[in-house]
Specification:
CATH topology of the largest domain: Alpha-Beta Plaits
Distance between the termini: 39 Å
CATH superfamily of the largest domain: ACT domain
Strand content: 35-45%
Protein name: ACT domain-containing protein
CATH architecture of the largest domain: 2-Layer Sandwich
InterPro entries: ACT-like_dom_sf, ACT_dom, GcvR, UPF0237/GcvR_regulator
Strand order of the largest sheet: 2-3-1-4
Pfam families: ACT (PF01842), ACT_6 (PF13740)
Number of helices: 4
Structural class: alpha+beta
Order of helices and strands: EHEEHEEHEEHE
Shape: flat
Radius of gyration: 20 Å
Largest sheet: 4 strands, antiparallel
Number of domains: 2
Organism: Nostocoides australiense Ben110
Length: 172
């Protein structure tokens, strides 16, 4: 069985048509397989992260080819690592409230205080339909170390929600 490298590509560039195709073509032309990705347009930029697997003997060629995208995309290549077998229980939460600075800092601080590691975080702001102003919404998936007191995590997040005046829904 051939040795396969896992590469993580961080990409950013001015948003325009064809960026994903150019990246996918390069990965495919060099024996790579596009595994997972999170890509989005943010403030006129196209940005994201892509997980690629590539046979060991083609990894250096793929790295060199990706460097050739300068001017179209800035691409940084990072070595991936194997996922941990026992990451512990998964906690999913949603946060919704009036937008203000510090919400992500406060919520991520509460998670970190209980040893949870964020696996996925997506946030957005949108117009509040009736009240005016902006609403902040976050969706977070995190994993806890084995043996974590999930009731204590839930209680801490509920207390924080009252303190910073947001709604937090926890699925643990």
């Amino acid at each position: 069985m051939p040795v396969v490298h896992t590469l993580l590509l961080t990409v950013i560039g001015d948003d325009r048509a064809g960026l994903v195709k150019a990246l996918a073509d390069t990965v495919g032309e060099h024996g790579g397989n596009w595994e997972r990705s999170r890509l989005a347009e943010l403030a006129g930029k196209f940005a994201g992260i892509v997980e690629v697997s590539v046979p060991d003997e083609q990894a250096d060629e793929l790295r060199a080819a990706l460097a050739g995208h300068a001017g179209l995309l800035e691409i940084d290549v990072h070595e991936g690592r194997a996922e941990e077998a026992d990451a512990g229980p998964v906690v999913r939460l949603e946060v919704l409230g009036n937008d203000r600075p510090g919400i992500v800092r406060e919520v991520s601080g509460a998670l970190a205080a209980h040893g949870l590691s964020v696996d996925e975080l997506s946030t957005e702001t949108r117009d509040a339909p009736m009240a005016g102003g902006q609403l902040f919404e976050a969706k977070i998936t995190a994993h806890a170390p084995p043996g974590t007191d999930l009731a204590a995590v839930r209680a801490a997040l509920e207390a924080l929600a009252q303190e910073i005046q947001v709604d937090v829904t926890v699925d643990a």
